[in-house]
Amino acid sequence: MNLSAHTGLDTGNSTIFNQSEILNEDSSQAHVKTQKPLRGVKGQEACSMPCDVTAKLLRDEKHSLCVHLQQSLLTFGRSTRKLIRDVMEEQQRALDFLSSQVTELMTRVQTLSSEVQRSNTEMYSIKPVQSHGRDCSDIKDNLISVVPKIPSGIYIVHPENIDSSFEVFCEMDYMGGGWTVIQRRTDGLTDFKRPWADYSDGFGHLPGEHWLGLRKVFHILNQKDTRFQLHIALVSHDDITSYASYDDFRLDNETHFFSIHLGRYAGSAGDAFRGYDQEQNQDTAPFSASDVDNDGCNPFCSINNRTVESCSSQHNQTGWWFNQCGLANLNGSPQDPEQNRGRSTHILWDTWRQNGVPHSIKSVTMKIRRITTNN
């Protein structure tokens, strides 16, 4: 009986358990039926976790990635700023170093410049430059008794009645020596296209091409009890030589624009200064330059059926004693006269001709020498 009762109890319990299991199974199946599978990659099995849990995990993962990315950007920004700061500091140090080097060099240059200036001052303040004579003729007369052969070259002259001395080139081996060179044109390397101030003061290189300067020539010529001869030596492109000489040569002062005055002519090149008629006569003409026009062309001249307003412009901007231009200009270029046709750019001494054609002149020298006077 007990067994039956026990068995009956067991049977009842089994029935209860079976019903409970059936209910649980039905509940589980119902829950599974209500849950929708997650969308994903094709063929992927349905998510076994609830959707809200999955979404929360994705949000957490996204938040973690964003935080990590922000930290990486901040770290990169700090590193970049530090790199830029380091580069700028390095450049600033380099600039500071270069600046100090430049400052030091400038200081040294200023020191050297001061020393050179002081040395020059001391050198030139020891004593005044001693002149060799009043002009080349005077130098020759002073040295002829003590020097058997006086060399040509640069000498210092101090004419009377002026306070300063200056250098000249003396020709001591040409026709007895004692010549003061006042102009030389040989190779065309010196630019003779000059304004009035340059022709007044002088320019060029004394051993080569140069113009001594009207003021200096005037001071030499204007010494008392002196008279000077002008000698013009010409050489053609065919190496033919000729000359023109005037036994008296003087200049008026600057107020009268250094007007030229010539004595009697002698030579083999013809008297181009005076030309063939009075209209071509350049004797007594004032000096003209590109910026000081005294050529007598007012308002213009007619030369070879051409209208000329300025003889200096017609003669390549050179300076000379023009008179309606005339037949002489020794300051032209020694280059081929066929260049620049229509303009007189070459050395001009029109009266020196061969078979009726003027010589093409490649070099000229103007020089002066004292003439013995009876005074």
TrEMBL record:
Pfam families: Fibrinogen_C. One of its GO terms (biological process) is blood coagulation, common pathway. One of its GO terms (cellular component) is fibrinogen complex. It is found in: Secreted. SUPFAM superfamilies: Fibrinogen C-terminal domain-like. The keyword Glycoprotein applies. Gene3D superfamilies: Gamma Fibrinogen, chain A, domain 1 (3.90.215.10), Gamma-fibrinogen Carboxyl Terminal Fragment, domain 2 (4.10.530.10). The keyword Hydrolase does not apply. Residues 127-372 form the Fibrinogen C-terminal domain. GO terms for molecular function: extracellular matrix structural constituent; protein-macromolecule adaptor activity. Keywords: Disulfide bond, Glycoprotein, Secreted. InterPro entries: FIB_ANG-like, Fibrinogen-like_C, Fibrinogen_a/b/g_C_1, Fibrinogen_a/b/g_C_dom, Fibrinogen_CS. This is Angiopoietin like 5. The lineage of its organism: Eukaryota, Metazoa, Chordata, Craniata, Vertebrata.
